Amino acid sequence: MAKTERIGVYPGTFDPTTNGHMDIIKRGARVLDRLVIGVAVNAGKGPLFSLDERVEMVRDEVATLKDPKIGEIEVKPFNSLLMQFAEAENADCILRGLRAVSDFDYEFQMAGMNARLNPDIEILFLMASERHQFIASRLVKEIAALGGDISSFVSATVARRVNERYGRLDLQAVNE
To answer: Does 160 qualify as catalytic in the annotation?
Structure first.
């Protein structure tokens, strides 16, 4: 019997979840029947939030999506090779977002390696929407750490959590 459900995995550290991430999640979930957001342990990046906190943050953000065209979305942590995680989820594809040429260089290498590990799982690239092309979690954290306003890069809920982590009040709440 042929498989008819299209399943994709969108991996990342999501430290924190940005508006750019949410754009890719929403658009990816429109073309897939089921999207599994894989939150990577990735201790090498020195995350601001624990794995459990990042999973919770992504789940909270996904719960706000209201679009009848969106398929099923699940959020799961993983600590393995991406291809192993994708195989365990019975995925047809891995979804990746591209912001700039520099992303393409890295993603091109990763796609080649992943294709060698499992040529049956396709890599799908979505270009970041124009208004999100410059957003990177690393930059959001740097702006917040230095006292800048991150409210245009992340949701109000995420901004509050990031600012609390840096011992600051939520700037958006103060301005309202």
So the answer is: no
